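Run log // design_07
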């Protein structure tokens, strides 16, 4: 249920918010998921792993997968994502995860 709730938020962001703001660019649900996880991890002082890119061009940052997070972490991530979405003008449907606190 938590994964579904988080993906629903990402879907609403995909439909409602351009990124970067004002660009007219709609990024994918997966891109929103990755951006939210990255921002939440940084807020919690968790570093990313940085690796040389597989194609040899630059570096890639890798954060934990949501499937590796425990229930409490997912609840915190969902609250973070909801707050960010609302602060940035997204209209979210009734949370489906209310009983997952």
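design_07 sequence
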């Amino acid at each position: 249920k938590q994964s579904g709730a988080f993906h629903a938020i990402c879907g609403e962001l995909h439909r409602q918010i351009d990124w970067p703001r004002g660009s007219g660019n709609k990024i994918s649900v997966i891109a929103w998921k990755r951006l939210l996880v990255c921002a939440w991890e940084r807020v919690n002082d968790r570093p990313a792993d940085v690796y040389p890119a597989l194609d040899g061009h630059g570096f890639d940052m890798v954060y934990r997968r949501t499937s590796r997070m425990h229930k409490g972490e997912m609840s915190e991530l969902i609250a973070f994502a909801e707050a960010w979405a609302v602060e940035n003008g997204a209209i979210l449907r009734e949370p489906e995860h209310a009983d997952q606190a």
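Residues 97-101 have pLDDT under 50 and may be disordered.
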